[in-house]
Amino acid sequence: MTPRRKQAQAMLRITQVRSRIGNQERIVRVLTDGLGLGRIGSCVELPDTPATRGMIAKVSHMVRVEELGARPAGKGAKEATPSATSAGGDTPGEAASDESNGKRERRASSTAGAAASEE
Length: 119
Description:
By secondary structure, this protein is of the alpha+beta class. It has a domain at 8-73: CATH 3.30.1390.20. The protein has 3 helices and 3 strands, in the order E-H-E-H-E-H. Strands 2-1-3 form a 3-stranded antiparallel β-sheet, with no helix packed on it.
């Protein structure tokens, strides 16, 4: 018997946008235990299954759902990550590292100046 190949499965990105405070205990359990969300802004990626859709239906007033493309299933499957580039050609990570490097240089120069003034 030949092994059956797993089909690519669509994924959902679920983001919590409202607080769980003041909600019924079963709603809180669906958020935390079922979906794995804990605080506002937390995000998880889950397979698009009827069970996941049912949990989302229970807490639809508290979450935002985005449908992602199908990802191949299996051990050797590589995850496809979309590349986010801005109009300037720099990625957001590069811009942030440039800013932090500038801050480090300023801090280093200010501490070097303080050490020189002590002598």
